[in-house]
């Protein structure tokens, strides 16, 4: 299993936005050093909270500061862009990053963004599907002529093919509606389950996979579970009590913001205590120890009815920057190895040694004793030889 992060980002109003964006970049560098494999960057244009307007620009900067981590749009809101221009920019990034870029797409989360662009919210999903049809054809090297309510293409084609072969990786966001799985299946691309840890979202995982698989087969594709990514929030500390103390820093502000984005809000409550109690009941976020994180990911594996390729943290700023970085470190240290087959061989070797009954310690003592005796005998023989020569 791969691990990564889904960065909206979420920055409370009233903080220095320049500093906040720099912290986002620092986080990606931190994750790159820790061995996380993916970072997906969001696109939003209103609300003053999710303040990255262009994931492509952010990715270009992050790519220069990192070495290994792959970088994706998480997600590019297709109704807001002309498909030729978006595909062209992503192919350029694919070359500039030597294949480290991924195109995540969706209809656009914030209806306030669509409102400012004059896009009726009930047209966002069909417009996304039309745009994705065009983008996939362009990435395949086809010439495209299309006329829709959202865009016009006349004999359009890309002047560069992707650096990645056959083309850069594409994934479609899925939450509760079947739009994401249907689009991913139609084009045989990956899927990002954004609300995987919400109770309704977890209940939908198996259904979403079935839709993805069914539509893929109808279109001559085979789905690949390794291209399925599940997203959920976590904050990890040495103990559950410490984790809950950590998130007192910012979880209340996050809750107030999200109550205006999604009905009900995934983290709800009027006070920190109420939010934490509601979360204990809903289980939306892991706020606890590495063991709690392991249990949640295993729960997701079971709910997926066959497994998935990557788990992505829904990044947030519930804790202060130091505690937040420590959370990612603890996860990399104790949780990631559990699902990456990195523990069993080490544990078996340790067991073999420690259960030897002192055999190897005795061998070491004997070897030291023999070396000491051999040295003494060698010195004695040399001294005797010296005496005889005199």
- Rg (C-alpha, Å): 27 Å
Which CATH top level class of the largest domain fits?
Alpha Beta
Q: What is the SS-derived class?
A: alpha/beta
What's the helical proportion of residues?
40-55%
User: What is the CATH third-level topology name of the largest domain?
Assistant: TIM Barrel
| Level-2 CATH architecture of the largest domain | Alpha-Beta Barrel
Low-confidence stretches: none
Major sheet strand order: 1-2-3-4-7-8-9-12
Q: Proportion of β residues?
A: 15-25%
* Series of secondary-structure elements, N-terminal to C-terminal: EHEHEHEHHEEEHEHEEHHHEHEHHH
Q: Tell me the number of helical segments per DSSP (H or I, 4 or more residues long).
A: 14
> Total number of β-strand segments?
12
Shape: elongated
The major pleated sheet works out as:
8 strands, parallel, barrel
Count of the separate structural domains: 2
Task: List the topology elements.
Elements: E1 2-7, H1 17-34, E2 38-41, H2 55-65, E3 70-77, H3 83-96, E4 101-106, H4 111-116, H5 124-139, E5 144-147, E6 152-156, E7 169-174, H6 179-187, E8 190-193, H7 199-218, E9 228-232, E10 234-236, H8 240-246, H9 251-258, H10 272-282, E11 286-288, H11 290-304, E12 310-314, H12 321-335, H13 344-354, H14 359-389
Parallel strand pairs: 1-2, 1-12, 2-3, 3-4, 4-7, 7-8, 8-9, 9-12, 10-11
Antiparallel strand pairs: 5-6
Helix pairs in contact: 1-12, 3-5, 6-7, 11-12
